[in-house]
Design a protein that fits this description.
Blueprint (H helix, E strand, L loop, with lengths): L10 E5 L3 H10 L5 E6 L10 E4 L4 E4 L5 E2 L3 H9 L6 E4 L2 E4 L6 E3 L14 H4 L5 H15 L10 H7 L4 H16 L8 H13 L7 E4 L3 H15 L3 E4 L3 E7 L3 E6 L2 E5 L1 E4 L6 H4 L3 H5 L4 H4 L4 E11 L8 E4 L6 E3 L13 E8 L9 H15 L1 H5 L2 E14 L3 H4 L12 E3 L12 H19 L14 H6 L2
Parallel strand pairs: 1-2, 1-14, 2-10, 7-16, 14-20
Antiparallel strand pairs: 3-4, 5-9, 6-9, 7-8, 11-12, 12-13, 15-18, 15-19, 16-17, 17-18
C-alpha cells in the first residue's frame, strides 16, 4: 500500500468494516491520523447488510434493522454523516394478537418519564387484568433494582418478582426477544434491565422506532462509506486480513491477501468468533484475556422471512406480532411494487430462532402465512408468489450471565492493539448502539495510548426529574 511522500501522520488500521469498525474510523478521522479500514467483503456494513434479489433487481436486507430513540450514539453517527433524514421515526407501536383488537401504544408527551407510559398496559388488550397487575408490580421492582445487585437470568428475577409463565411469555419476552435476540430464560438480568429501562421507561422519546428508508447496503455500505472517504479514511474492501504480527514491539504488521503493511495502532473490529484467526501473533493473543472463551461465546440466531405477494396484505409499515412464530412484520417504504412483476414485499422477523432448526422451510412458511391470515384479512386472498428464508446462526451473542463476565474492554495489555465490537464492554447488549459505542471507545483507546486526544461516546437521553428519583 503506497503512502504519499511526506505524509508523517501516525498510521492506524481498522480490521473489520461493520458498524463498530466504521464508528471507530469516524471518530479517529477527527484527528490528524492516517486511517485504513480493511473489510473482507466487497462492501462494508458487516452483519447489517443486504443481498441482491435477482427477480426484483433490488437490494434486500438480510434482516430488518431498526434503532430506538435511546440509541443516542448510533443516531448521532447518522446525524454527523448526514444520514438521519434517511430514517423514518415512528412514535407509536402496534401490537397484534389473535382474537384481540390491535393495540397501538404511544407515550404521553406531557407527562414525565416513566409516567409517560402510564396508559400503555391498559391498551394491551391481549393481557388479562391479572397479567397487567403483575407487569405493573414487575416494572416498579425493575426500576428499584440496581443492575449490579443481581447475578442471575432475567427469568429467575421475574419469577422472584411474582411474574407468571404466561406474563413472562406474553409481555416480557415479547420485548426482550425483539431487543436482545434472546429469551428471558437465558439472558442476564443487567442487559435485560438496560433495554427495558433505557429503552422504554427512562425518557419520553426512548422508545421511538427509527426505521431505515433505504436498504442497509445503500445506507451503510455506500453512503456512510462515502462519508468516511470524504473524511480521508481509506477503505480497502474485498481484502481479507489473515493475521497480525508484532514488529519490533512497537508496530503491528497487517497481512491481507499476500500484502503486508505496518501500523502504529490496530483496531480489531471483526466479530468475536473471528478473533482467533486475526490474532495470529502470540503476543497479541496474550493481550486479550480469556480469548479462548471469547471466541466461543454462545450465539443466538435471527431469521428474516422475505415474502412477495401479488398484493399488499396491510397498509401498516410495521407491527409487533404476539403469540405466534412471527414476531415483527415490516413493509419497507423503499420497496415499491415492481412494475414488471407486480410483487409486494413484506418481511417477517423471527429472533432467537433456534427452534427453527430442523424444521422444513415449507412448514415455517405455512405457519407464518397462517398467522398473517389471522391478523390481516387481505392475506387470506393474497397469493404468495415467492419467498426466501435467511437465517444468521451467529447473528448476536447470547447475553447470558456467564457471558457478561467474559466481555473484554476495548484496550488490551498490548498498547498498540485495541478491540471494537458489540461483544466488548459497552453497557449494552448485542445491538447497533453497542457496536457504535464500542467503536467510539476503541477510538478513544487509540487516542489515549498515542497521546493524541480523547473521544467519548454520547450520553444517554436526559432523564426527567421523576425518572432520576425513581430509577436506582
Amino acid at each position: 500500500m503506497k503512502r504519499a511522500r511526506g505524509d508523517n501522520r501516525p498510521r492506524v488500521a481498522i480490521v473489520g468494516g461493520g458498524l463498530a469498525g466504521m464508528a471507530a474510523a469516524w471518530a479517529l478521522s477527527d484527528f490528524p491520523l492516517e486511517i485504513t479500514l480493511f473489510e473482507a467483503r466487497k462492501r462494508v456494513g458487516g452483519r447489517a447488510g443486504s443481498y441482491q434479489d435477482p427477480v426484483a433487481e433490488q437490494d434486500v436486507d438480510f434482516c430488518q434493522h431498526v434503532a430506538m430513540g435511546c440509541c443516542t450514539n448510533f443516531l448521532e453517527l447518522m446525524r454527523q454523516a448526514g444520514l438521519l433524514n434517511q430514517f423514518t421515526r415512528e412514535t407509536e407501536l402496534t401490537f397484534l394478537a389473535p382474537q384481540h383488537p390491535p393495540a397501538t401504544v404511544a407515550p404521553i408527551d406531557w407527562l414525565p418519564a416513566p409516567l409517560h407510559r402510564a396508559t400503555t398496559l391498559n391498551q394491551l388488550s391481549f393481557l388479562s387484568r391479572r397479567e397487567k397487575s403483575q407487569v405493573r408490580r414487575g416494572i416498579w421492582r425493575l426500576l428499584r433494582t440496581p443492575p449490579a445487585s443481581v447475578d442471575t437470568t432475567m427469568q429467575r428475577w421475574l419469577e422472584a418478582a411474582k411474574q407468571s409463565p404466561q406474563t413472562i411469555e406474553r409481555f416480557w419476552d415479547v420485548l426482550l426477544v425483539s431487543a436482545l435476540g434472546e429469551h428471558a430464560r437465558r439472558v442476564a438480568f443487567a442487559p435485560a434491565r438496560k433495554v427495558l429501562v433505557d429503552g422504554f421507561l427512562a425518557a419520553n422519546r426512548a422508545a421511538d422506532v427509527w426505521i431505515p428508508q433505504q436498504p442497509l447496503s445503500q445506507l451503510l455500505g455506500h453512503r456512510l462509506a462515502n462519508a468516511l472517504r470524504d473524511r480521508g479514511v481509506k477503505i480497502e474492501a474485498g481484502r481479507l486480513v489473515k493475521g497480525l504480527q508484532v514488529v519490533a514491539d512497537e508496530m503491528i504488521e497487517v497481512q491481507a491477501d499476500g500484502v503486508t503493511d505496518q501500523f502504529q495502532h490496530v483496531v480489531v473490529a471483526v466479530p468475536w468468533y473471528a478473533l482467533g484467526r486475526v490474532l495470529s501473533d502470540n503476543k497479541l493473543r496474550d493481550a486479550v484475556p480469556l480469548l479462548d472463551r471469547l471466541v466461543d461465546l454462545p450465539t443466538s440466531p435471527i431469521s428474516g422471512l422475505h415474502l412477495w405477494f401479488d398484493t399488499a396484505i396491510t397498509e401498516r409499515r410495521h407491527c409487533v406480532l404476539v403469540d405466534g412464530l412471527a414476531q415483527w412484520l415490516f413493509r419497507p417504504e423503499h420497496f415499491s411494487a415492481s412494475e414488471s412483476t407486480r410483487e409486494h414485499y413484506h418481511q417477517v422477523v423471527i429472533s432467537a430462532s433456534s427452534d427453527l432448526r430442523g424444521m422444513e422451510e415449507s412448514r415455517i412458511v405455512d405457519k407464518v402465512l397462517e398467522e398473517l391470515q389471522g391478523h390481516f384479512p387481505r392475506a387470506r386472498d393474497a397469493q404468495l408468489l415467492r419467498h426466501r428464508l435467511v437465517t444468521d446462526p451467529r447473528s448476536v451473542f447470547s447475553v447470558r450471565p456467564q457471558v457478561e463476565a467474559v466481555r473484554p474492554p476495548q484496550s488490551t495489555t498490548f498498547p498498540q492493539l485495541h478491540l471494537a465490537g458489540d461483544y466488548t464492554q459497552t453497557g449494552w447488549p448485542a445491538t447497533m448502539e453497542g457496536a457504535v459505542i464500542s467503536g467510539f471507545l476503541a477510538a478513544d483507546s487509540v487516542l489515549c495510548s498515542g497521546g493524541w486526544g480523547s473521544y467519548q461516546p454520547q450520553d444517554g437521553l436526559p432523564r426527567s426529574w421523576l425518572a432520576k428519583w425513581l430509577i436506582r
